[in-house]
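Students often ask why we bother encoding 3D structure as a string. The short answer is that it lets us treat folding as translation between two languages. Here is a chain of 194 residues written in the first language.
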Amino acid sequence: MAFILASASPRRLDLLRQIGRAPDSVVPADIDETPAPGELPRGLVSRLAASKAEHVAQQLPDDVVLAADTVVACGRRILPKPADEAEAHRCLDLLSGRRHRVYGGISIRAPGGVVRNRVIVTQVTFTRLSHQECEAYISTAEWQGKAGGYAIQGRAAAFVKQLNGSYSNVVGLCLHATENLLKNLVPLNAPHDD
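And here it is in the second language, the structure alphabet:
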């Protein structure tokens, strides 16, 4: 029985390795991630994580599959993974000087009909950003492929005035929740010397 990560995110892979839970392989789930009309952030992140896990588990029914998703929201407004610099700027403008929530969905499928789902919410407050700070950040291209247009583990860490909840959730995977969900399903990786 192999442990499969159903995500192409290098951040999630690094986070799993950090806690001794490196997957045996990575099999990204190719699903439509478009929010349904009126869908709220918590429901969206839960649905996407579960859909990714189910999609990969159907291909690999004898393995343990872990899928995750991250949604950044201001109130009910779901922020995109910006497609271009203009959209990244709009995200940063919206987040500037405000509190927002990062929703992390985790879903596990294992043989025997085991299904484990969890949603973690972290509150993040950004300092007020100047136009120059936004421009400088956007020029780094760190925003590319990131929900809400920022990477807290990069230069955007300087924008975070306050954080309530799981830091690793904002990076891409709440490690505390993931560890609890994987217990008794996946053995820890053996330590090795590099």
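Translate back mentally: Helices lie at 10-18, 41-59, 85-95, 131-140, 167-171, 175-182. Keep this in mind for the problem set.
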